[in-house]
Amino acid sequence: MTIEPILGRYLTVEVAGRSQRIYFEEAGEGRPVLCLHTAGADTRQWRHILNDAEVTADNRIIAFDMPWHGKSLPPEGFQTEEYLLTTEVYMETILAVIKGLELDRPVLAGVSMGGRIALQLAARHGEHFSGFLAIEASDFQPAWYDIDWFHRPDAHGGEMGAALVSTNISPYAPEAERWNTLWMFMASGPGVFRGDLSFYTKDDSLIGLLKDIDTEKAPVHLIVGAYDFTCTPEDAKRTADAIRGATLTVMDEVGHFPMSEHPEAFRPFFIEGLSKMPAIRRSAE
C-alpha cells in the first residue's frame, strides 16, 4: 500500500469579475515552482514530479487545474456560454492563484499552452516571477488541423483530441504512460480542448513581445522534445534566439507531453532547468 505525499485543496479567486473555485495539488517545501498543464488536460500530468522526493526536497511543487479542467469546475452559468480561453484571462488566472496562495515570485513551469503563457507573463508581468521554464513552447503555432472537430455533435471530442495528440507522443514513451496521458484528453469536458486551442492557435501577439523579456531579472529556459512536431526543436530555437539571454535544451526520446508521457526521460531535463533558476527567492525591486 502506498499513500502519496501529494496534498490537494481548493482555492477560490476572482478572475474577470467571476468567482472561480480552483483545484490545486502540492508537495515539498522550499522554492515555489508553479506548474501549468497542457491544453485539454489537467494537473495529473505533473503527478510524477509531485511524487519525486529529490525534486520536492528543496522545491514546493504546485500544480493547478485551470477552470473548466480536471477538478476545477466551470464558473456558474457555464451552460449558456462557449468556452474560449484568452491570453488575458489565462494570465489573470495564474496571477490570481499566485496572489491567493501568497507565493513569493515562484518559478513558472508551463508546458505547451502553459509554456506559451509563461513567455507572455515573462514579457508582461515578469516582476511576479523568479524564473521561467517554458516547455514545448514557442512564439506562435498556427493550427494545422480544424479545431472544431473537437466539439461537434457527431464526434466524441475527447477521443478526437486523444487521437490527435497520440501522434505527438514519442515512440520511446512507456506504453502505460502513453495511455495514461491519452486518458486525460479522453476525459476532457465538452469543448474544453477546442477552447484551449483557440488561444493556442490564434493569438500571435507574443512574437512582438519577446524582445521585452528581461532574463537578467528572471531567467528563461526553454525545453523541447525531439519528437514534438507541434512545437518542434526548430520552433523552440527560433523563439529562444529572439529572447536575449534565454537558454534551450532539446530532450531526446520525448514528445509534446514530457512530464506525463515519459517521466523518467523528462526528469533530468526538468532538474537541469530548475538548476538554472535562482536558488533563493529574491525580493521584488
Chart the SSEs and their pairings.
Layout: E1 7-15, E2 18-27, E3 31-36, H1 47-50, H2 53-56, E4 59-64, H3 87-100, E5 107-111, H4 113-124, E6 131-135, H5 157-166, H6 175-186, H7 192-202, E7 220-225, H8 233-241, E8 247-251, H9 258-261, H10 263-275
Parallel strand pairs: 3-4, 3-5, 5-6, 6-7, 7-8
Antiparallel strand pairs: 1-2, 2-4
Described by the principal axes of the CA atoms, the overall outline is globular
> Could you give me the name of the CATH homologous superfamily?
Alpha/Beta hydrolase fold, catalytic domain
Decide which structural class fits the backbone: alpha/beta
Largest sheet: 8 strands, mixed
The percent range for helix content is 25-40%
Count of helical stretches: 10
Question: How many strands in all?
Answer: 8
Query: How many discrete structural domains?
Result: 1
- Strand percentage lies at 15-25%
Taking all Cα atoms into account, the compactness measure Rg is 17 Å
Topology order in helix (H) and strand (E) letters: EEEHHEHEHEHHHEHEHH
Second CATH tier, the architecture = 3-Layer(aba) Sandwich
Describe it.
It is built from 10 helices and 8 strands. It has helices at 47-50, 53-56, 87-100, 113-124, 157-166, 175-186, 192-202, 233-241, 258-261, 263-275; strands spanning 7-15, 18-27, 31-36, 59-64, 107-111, 131-135, 220-225, 247-251. Helices cover 33% and strands 18% of the residues. The longest helix is centred in the first third of the chain and has 14 residues, at 87-100. The protein has an 8-stranded mixed beta sheet, sandwiched between helices. The termini are far apart. The protein has one domain: Rossmann fold, CATH 3.40.50. β1 (7-15) and β2 form a beta hairpin. The protein has 285 residues and is α/β, with parallel strands linked by helices. α5 runs antiparallel to α6 (175-186). It is globular. The model is unreliable at 281-285 (pLDDT under 50).
